[in-house]
Amino acid sequence: MFKPFLFHNAFRLSTTTLHHSSFQFSLRFLTTSPSHPFAVSYLIDKFGFSSEFAFKASKTLHFKTSKNPDSVLNVFTTYGFTDSDIQNIIRREPWLLSCNPRFMRSSLNNRVIPVYKLGVCDSSIAKIICSHIIFCKPRVFEEMVEELKNMGFDPSKIYFGDALLAKLGLSKSKWDAKIDTFKKWGWSEETILEAIRKQPKCMLASTDKINRVMQFWVNDLGWDSSYLAKGPGMFSYALEKRIVPRAMVVICLQTKGLRSESASLLSPFYVSEKVFLERFVLCFKEEETAHLLNLYRTMMKVGDEKVLPGLVD
């Protein structure tokens, strides 16, 4: 069995969330009505969720009695999950309440426990629990784990869970197509592997998204594609709403001599918008700040309209 503390960090709730008690396992009879389906009542009474959240989450649920969801909760309890662990899991993935409890127990035994024994970190196991990959065939799951280890992934690192999600979420043909796309833009096999190890989620970007980001970065800006290999998380960002507006500000700063050519090209894209504005827009003299702010807002507006020159599908 899992030790109760295993998921403490991965699924801990904020003090605000826990303010009104932990887990409320109500034993009272739950009534139903056409305007207040059983699943909604269950989510509110069992977990203390808001009516708005419960109604939204109930769209993914398919039960009319408490038998199945109670059995699912019992499975989690058996494996050492705390009440707050379970509450947070269901908040993130309410569809789990409709799963076959026996199948879930089998999935935990055949996939999660073996991965835990490999030394996989808590956050990675949390991602496995809260995703559909927990239901893949055990043999396929084991093969993917071994393949990732052979690729150089360390099971104890935080990105191992993301790597599993990416590998199991893509067919071989789609995976290979993305590898070929990166190669087309000058990445070597080793460069691609390093990028995937650094940020596995880059493989979840569509080939079209990869091409569009590369097109803008390499052809429009004239920057080397190797920089993106050092920051593969860029492929997860919105091109029109983040990458393009910030790039235009960086180009403007370089042109005006306000930013060194040797400064990191990636750092402006990885910070929050608040930090970006503070560091790259609002920290200059009034006239420069006004110009940069206008440029940034204009490009954000263009991004809203999705009419960026050369970037339209």
UniProtKB/TrEMBL annotation:
One Pfam family here: mTERF
Keyword annotations: Transcription, Transcription regulation, Transcription termination, Transit peptide
Keyword Oxidoreductase assigned: no
Molecular functions per Gene Ontology: nucleic acid binding
GO biological process, alphabetically ordered: DNA-templated transcription termination
InterPro entries: MTERF (IPR003690), MTERF_sf (IPR038538)
Protein name: mTERF protein
Originating species: Trifolium pratense (Red clover)
